[in-house]
Design brief:
There is one protein chain. This protein is α+β, with helices and mostly antiparallel strands. Helices cover 30% and strands 18% of the residues. The protein has a 6-stranded antiparallel β-sheet. A hairpin with a 2-residue loop joins strand 13 and strand 14. Helix 9 crosses helix 11 and helix 12 runs antiparallel to helix 13. Bound molecules: siroheme and iron/sulfur cluster.
Length: 582
């Protein structure tokens, strides 16, 4: 039987309601109907099954072990200690006893079964959080610089992430009716939605806000990005706007490719919502509604031409963009350890292996974080947890007097990378979830990263590179959830135990890497990398990154698809510091 298209499902869904209420109440199966599985994503949850036991259940003639992943909407990724404790309770009551920090600054729960899905959604709501639009053909979780140092600026860009997220929430009340048992109003199923209409967007849409010189949100991997420009007094002058970034690709399909965003101009703060709406609606009206793999904004831009798309956006926004202001990014990673904020409070960034917070033998991270949240609860505003787009965690706004207590808890719960001092490589590496929950995974990622790191580390040490913060990213398939095409070294899954080895991105999120070797095993990956480490150790220039070296040495060239690295870049040093906009 052929299934209806996602476009048809959306149109007929009565504002994303479908038959979700009936499907959730059906005790006979742990699954939802095909159509409802598509719709439930817009409510922030995916139906999955445990792939580790899929074959065994098939042999036993049982239906797959259906379970749900739930993604929280948390623009800018900030949580109070009280919210943390509630999320922890949800993880241990209904999910698989872990909190998974995602590459878009929020948490996912895994392993929730259908009959407990509603209670879990209600518990998330009771933590003053929701999951609306965390998935689906809508604007997704908005990223904002985690930027621990500038408290005022952080608060401001965080506020922008919130505003953008709220502005582009669907208008349907389906979420409140289905999950929170709120009463149906007269217009149930007929709510007007000026942005999304009845068809929503052709595909997901992603936004981010960055604060130079740190590109910790990988701004150019987003459909729409804002780069903060700071005026002479350290206030926000406005934003450079970038459009058309995206990572997803499919093996063997040249019509799909990762692409970096183009900087198209500058807007004042009061123009931000209009230009964002213009980008979203241009994509809504011009994006591909037939081929979902080809339906992202990046392809719309390449199909119609950047100038045409910008002209369309300006017409809809009702103003011309000003010329882009110079900016400079010096890295896209996180800064680890304690730093003092401008308000005299302290921020501690922890590197957590692959962002999965769980209790493991010798590393009771979930318990440790619970104890830290208990220390910080009831504190002054700004005493909070920030999750980063690099899957790390910042304990922010800590009064000087509490530092020692936090340090002791970090130590006793081995909270900075297992039981050993975190290596530079481990801190700079990232993996997507992949197996066993991701339906699209072709190879391991999250579960494999610690093993791979343990094999690469001795090679780095052998060549005196133990402290080299090489950016390593693994994805279990080419969809690119760990943004692997921005890794100096990246592994992209092809089949169990086999990966494409990609090399040569920078560490600023401004140059994509290139396919170096296709479909190779771990042994071949190590064999390829070791001589490159040896050359890098012997020939690198002062402060030269691994990816930059590989380009200079001619080991890799620019990739064949559009990379758009010709963004306006200010030479480091001159206006690199905040507060010195040109
Ligand atoms: Fe992703 C699909 C996990 C960030 C590109 N992504 C999926 C699904 C839902 C698989 C599915 O469709 O059945 C994965 C669920 C795995 C699981 O079991 O939890 C999944 N994506 C993730 C997360 C959890 C990875 C992580 O380890 O952190 C990230 C959640 C982000 C969030 O909180 O919202 C995640 N995904 C990304 C990113 C990175 C980013 O946004 O900065 C990308 C690349 C950027 C982009 O969108 O171009 C990304 N995910 C995709 C794609 C490819 C989209 C495309 O343009 O073709 C898919 C496949 C799809 O949508 O059909 C996908
Ligand atoms: Fe799944 Fe592929 Fe995304 Fe990894 S990159 S989480 S394997 S869709």
């Amino acid at each position: 039987m052929s299934h209806p298209s996602v476009e048809d499902i959306k149109i007929k869904s009565r504002g994303l309601r479908g038959t979700l209420l009936e499907g959730l109440a059906d005790p006979v199966t742990g699954s939802l109907s095909f159509e409802d599985q598509r719709l439930v994503k817009f409510h922030g949850t995916y139906q999955q099954d445990d792939r580790d036991i899929r074959d065994e259940r098939r042999r036993q003639k049982l239906e797959p072990a259906h379970q749900f992943m739930i993604r929280v909407r948390a623009p800018g990724g900030v949580f109070t200690p009280e919210q943390w404790l509630k999320l922890d309770a949800i993880a241990t009551t209904w999910a698989n006893h872990s909190l998974r920090i995602t590459t878009r600054q929020t948490f996912q729960f895994h392993g929730v079964i259908k009959r407990e899905l509603k209670a879990t959604m209600q518990a998330i709501n009771a933590a003053a959080l929701d999951t609306i639009s965390a998935c689906g053909d809508v604007n997704r979780n908005v990223l904002a610089a985690s930027n621990p140092l500038q408290s005022r600026l952080h608060a401001e860009v965080h506020e922008w992430a919130q505003r953008l997220s709220l502005e582009f929430l669907p208008k349907t009340r389906a979420y409140y009716e289905i999950w929170l048992d709120q009463e149906k109003l007269a217009d149930s199923g007929e709510e007007e939605d000026p942005v999304y209409g009845k068809v929503y967007l052709p595909r997901k849409f992603k936004m981010a806000v960055a604060v130079p010189p740190t590109n910790d949100v990988d701004l150019f991997a987003n459909d729409f990005g804002l780069i903060a420009v700071v005026d002479a007094d350290g206030g926000l002058a406005g934003f450079n706007v970038a459009i058309g970034g995206g990572m997803g690709a499919s093996h063997g399909d040249p019509k799909t490719y990762p692409r970096l965003g183009n900087v198209i101009g500058f807007v004042a703060p009061d123009q931000v919502l209009a230009i964002a709406a213009a980008a979203v609606t241009v994509q809504r009206d011009h994006g591909d509604r037939v081929e979902r793999k080809h339906a992202r904004f990046k392809y719309t831009i390449d199909e119609h031409g950047l100038d045409y798309i910008v002209a369309q956006m300006e017409e809809r926004a009702g103003f011309r963009l000003q010329p882009a202001r110079p900016f400079h990014f010096d890295h896209n990673g996180d800064r680890f350890g304690w730093v003092e904020g401008e308000d005299g409070r302290w921020h501690l960034t922890l590197s957590l292996p692959t962002g999965r917070i769980a209790d493991r033998p010798g590393a009771p991270h979930l318990t440790g974080m619970r104890e830290i949240a208990n220390v910080l609860r009831g504190g002054a505003p700004g005493q909070e947890f920030r999750v980063t787009a690099n899957q790390n965690l910042i304990i922010a706004g800590v009064p000087a007097g509490e530092r020692e207590r936090i340090d002791a808890l970090v130590r006793t719960h081995a909270l900075d990378q297992e039981n050993r001092a975190p290596t530079a490589l481990a801190r700079a590496s990232m993996a997507c979830v992949a197996l066993p929950t991701c339906a699209l995974a072709m190879a391991e990622a999250e579960r494999y990263l610690p093993d791979l790191n343990a094999k690469l580390q001795p090679l780095l040490e052998k060549h005196g590179l133990a402290d080299a913060p090489i950016l390593l990213r693994i994805s279990g398939c080419p969809n690119g959830c760990s943004r692997p095409y921005l890794g100096e070294i990246a592994l992209v899954g092809k089949a169990p135990g086999r990966y494409n080895l990609m090399l040569g991105a920078d560490h600023r999120g401004q140059r994509l890497n290139t396919l170096h070797r296709e479909n190779i095993t771990e042994a071949q990956i190590l064999e390829e990398l070791e001589p490159l480490f040896a050359r890098y150790a012997a020939e690198r220039g002062q402060g030269e990154g691994f990816g930059d070296f590989l380009h200079r040495a001619g080991v890799v060239a620019l990739p064949p698809y559009p990379t758009h690295t010709q963004v306006l870049v200010e030479p480091a040093g001159k206006n690199a510091a905040l507060g010195e906009a040109a």
